[in-house]
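We modelled the chain as a single entity of 251 amino acids. Its sequence is:
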Amino acid sequence: MNPYLKNLNKIEFVVTYACTGRCKHCSEGDHTSCGEQIDPEIAADAVRKIAAEYDIQTVMAFGGEPLLHTEAVYAIMTAAKELNIPKRQVITSGYFSKNADKIREVAERLAACGVNDLLLSVDAFHQETIPPDVVKQFAAEAKAFGIPIRLQPAWLVSAADDNPYNRKTREILDSFADLEIPVSEGNIIFPEGNALKYLAEYFTDEIPENPYAEDPRDVRCLSFEPNGNVLGGNVYERDIMEIIKDYGENL
């Protein structure tokens, strides 16, 4: 076992950078590179191989908007379910189609492939460009199929800060109250990408350390890019276990 990954317990997939929103807080900026998507079979195979060697507790799919490419999400989550990985998580804005039948079908398939933690991005930033009625429809369908679901707001500065964006986020969360969906603690916006471009006035001159950055000598989460990049290698070119074996040679 590679000593730099001895505490590895999570796998995450950026399914695609393509997105249905154009959010001011997005760390990815303007999504100029959004044509690629993770290959479903290669992603599912990676989950199986990694979980055979490591005690994986969480598998996550997000984006961009991951539900623009549902086959990849289904494949990843099905593999995680078959392996009894405890947390099978999808982060989505809930806006991937306006078609009611398609929305219902996706919710049903997500339930069938074992998603047990659906985080729905709902806040002032997403709802600037994403229609709340469509999101509510998806949320209602997900609940109906028994998927555990939480609202996941993005907070500016802190959850307690009284700025216009946070006030709007609280109003939007209140508008979802009739669905009786729990609200998670959410996340604090990091000054990167669009956030640094459009919300700079809310950040200090000194950019803080990114709380989501991994320690390269103690990797606890493997993150796959849509183009297959992971740990300095590429899973489309080399087997994931070879990439893991060779990781750290130049640290």
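As a brief sanity check on the tokenised model: The first strand starts at residue 10 and ends at 16. The two ends are 17 Å apart (CA to CA).
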